[in-house]
Amino acid sequence: MSSVAKRKSLVASAPSASVGTKRLRQVEHDNNMTQPAFPPEELRRIYLSFKRLEKWCHMPFFATTVTGCFVRVVTGASLSDPPHCVAEIVSVMESKNIYQFGSKRTNLVFKLRHASKDQIVTLRSASNQEFTSSELMQWKLAMMAAGKKVPTTEMISTKEKTIQQALDHTFTQGDFDFIVAQKNRFRAAPLNVAKRKLLLLDKQSAARKHGDDGMVKQIQDELTTLNQETKPLSQLRTTERCLKIPFPPIVKSRKRPAPKATTEDYHIMDPFTRRRTRPIMVTSLKKESIRTAVNSEMDLRYGPGFLPENED
Fold this sequence. Notes:
By secondary structure, the protein is α+β, with helices and mostly antiparallel strands. The protein has helices spanning about 5-35, 50-55, 60-65, 135-145, 155-165, 175-185, 195-210, 215-235, 240-245, 265-270, 290-300, and strands spanning about 70-75, 85-100, 105-115, 115-120.
């Protein structure tokens, strides 16, 4: 090909290249116009932590309040990916598996959305720390790359009011009944086994009257499971087990009669033994009877060998 032909081909291709560049710039400009100026830090206003989710998981307003909020979850995809990401709670669903969520038990799961990716995770995947600046920027870039719209300031303000209403919620008797029912539903073992058995037996008898064989079988299986769980506890309460428990010795009464002091006790002069300390009134030792009585008393108190002084 000659140089003249090459020049003609370059001139012919130049307008098409410039037109493609203009179209690409126009698309980027349109995308930037559809995405409003939104600071990612605004998401912290509708952020829910692990502790707050744990506190609300049995509340009647849980699903309506948390839907539309954002959580910080663990990605766990690979070492190259960030350990946490910002995700929006799309919906709250129930699963078949019951798991431990902090100090409570539940079967609720979240359907989360990060840009164009949806994933179902448990509630315990939520982090207790707030978003970092890098995580918020990564979320914004992912939303722009996927062509998704970010929440507006009005949407965030509305959801923030919903969260505040949940914090200031006034509980009624119906709310308390709902919370108790949820806790009993996911409880690992009933608090009162005997009461639980009576309720199951009443339900079983009612199901038999209505001819519901499926319900009767289901209740019987639950009774069998309950008996197996409480069997070790019942064995500890048997008579043979109780007889093997050593009982503490019977403590003797502290009200004991005072020991009678003897001559040897007075002679030893034990400080913890009671002794007679009443003074002796002596009027005259001239009489033989008085002198004999005084000497015997002295011998009793201070031991034998006491010699009275000569009165002459």
